Amino acid sequence: MTTSGVTLERRGARRPERVRAGLLAAACAVGVLLLWYALVYTRTGQFMEDAALTGSLIGERFIDTHARALLSTVSMPAAVALVLLILVLGLWRGSRRRAVWAVVTVVAINTSTQLLKHHVLARPDYGLSTRWDGANTLPSGHTAVAASAAVALVLVVGPSLRGVAAWGGALLTAAMGYSTLVCQWHRPADVISAVLLATAWGALAVACGIWQDGSDDAWAVGPTARGPGVVSLGVLGALAGTVGLLLEAATWWAVVTGSEVPGRADTFIAYAAGSVGTVAVSCSCLALLAGLAPVRPR
Hints:
The chain is mainly α. The protein is about 75% helix and about 0% strand. It is built from ten helices and two strands. α1 runs antiparallel to α8 (about 190-205) and α7 runs parallel beside α9. The termini are close together.
C-alpha cells in the first residue's frame, strides 16, 4: 500500500476510535458522580461504606505493614518523579506528542482529584464519619497517583507492550487502592472513583488524538493491541465485577433490612465487596483504555 493510502486509512480510522474514547471518558465521569451520590451523599450509602471500613479491621494485622510501606512511597516528590519519568519515556520512544499528552493527563488526574475532593463534592453529616471534621474523602489521592501512572504508561508505550502495561498498571492500581482500604485511609467508593477519574482523563487524551500522531508505533497491526493480554485482563475485570456486585447487593440488603449495627459477617462482606470491586474496576478500566488503540488491518 502506498504512503498516501496508509495515511487515508489512518484518517478514516480516527473517528471511530475517538468516538469510543469519548464515550468511555463520559461513562467514567458519570460513574464518579453516581458513586458519590449513591455511597457518599445518601445515608444508606454512608452506612454501606462505614460497614466496609469496619470490616477492613478484620485480619489487618497480617498485611498492614506491607500496605503502609506501599502507601509511604506515594508522595509529592514521587509524583514529580513520575511525571518526569513519563516525559523521558515518551521522548525516548520518539513521540513528543504522546509524552506531552501523557504528562498533561497525569497532572489533570491528580489536580482534578484534589479539586473534587476538597472543593466540589460534599459529604452530608449523618454522624458516621471517622474524621474529626467529617470532610469528604472521595476520590482517593493515593489511588489517583497510582492510577495516573498506569494510565500514562498505557498511553506512551508501543502496541507490542500495551497489554503488558495494562496488566502492570492494573496490578499497581489495585494494590494501592487495596492498601488504602486495609489501612482505613479510604472507603471503597473513594478508591473506585479515583480509578474511574483517571480512566476518564486517559480516554479523553485518546479522544483528542494522542495515538494519531503519524507514527507507525502508535498503530497495532491486526489484533495486537487488543490481543490475549488485554482481553484476559478485561475478562478478569468482568468476573471480579460480577462477584463484587453480588457482595455489594448483600451489603445493601443487610443495611436496609437491619435495625442494628451490622454484624461481623456483614462488615466483612462489605469489605470484601470493596476489595473485589477495586480489582474489578482497575482491571476493566485499564483493559478498556488499552483496547481503544487504533488497529490497522493486515
